[in-house]
Amino acid sequence: MPKTFELKKQELLRKHTLIQDLFNAKVGQHKALEYPFMALWKRAVPDTQYPAQVLFIVSKKYSKRRVHVNRTKRQMRELYRLRKHLLYEVLNQVETQIILAIIFTGKERFEHAALEEKFDNLLEKLIAKIEEKPGADFPTAN
After folding, report:
1. Nearest to 54 by CA among 126, 135, 106, 140
2. Which residues pair with 41 in a beta bridge?
């Protein structure tokens, strides 16, 4: 798969059943924390050609103004879009697919540079955990 910096519609997690499965899973659910982000993921076989389907969540409690919530979500999408190739390389190596929710847990607004640094740390933790147990407790893509 060529390295592109696009975020296609098929890469976004939209199916209600998959979202419920991710949040209600008792087995196979994994977590990585790097304030102000939390990544929650589960290995699965999404019905797309992409190794990961992602969902971005910013709480309504974060700000009373929707413009701040939307801006934070937009920043999260951009950060993921520019770094997803690192995650895809690892997922292709271990031959698996994941469904992933990236949740903003912060209470205050951050500068873009600070968010970049924190997101990079989160992605490193996520990749390390995926490499740690390849293929354990869930299906692999064939």
Report:
1. 126
2. 30, 100
Q: Identify the CATH class of 10-132.
A: alpha beta
Domains of the chain, residue spans: 10-132
Sort 86 into a burial class: Cβ within 10 Å, 0-12 / 13-18 / 19+.
Answer: middle
Asked whether the beta carbons of 138 and 28 are under 8 A apart, the reply is: yes
Backbone angles phi, psi at 65, to 5 degrees: -95, 125
Question: Given a cut of 90, is residue 138 above it in pLDDT?
Answer: no
CB 121 within 8 A of CB 85: no
Q: pLDDT tens digits for 67-125?
A: 999 999 999 999 999 999 999 999 999 999 999 999 999 999 999 999 999 999 999 99
| pLDDT above 90: residue 56 | yes
- How many CB atoms within 10 Å of residue 42? 19
Which of the 8 DSSP states describes residue 109? -
**Residue 46 to residue 14: CA distance in whole angstroms:** 11
> What pLDDT shows up at residue 139?
47
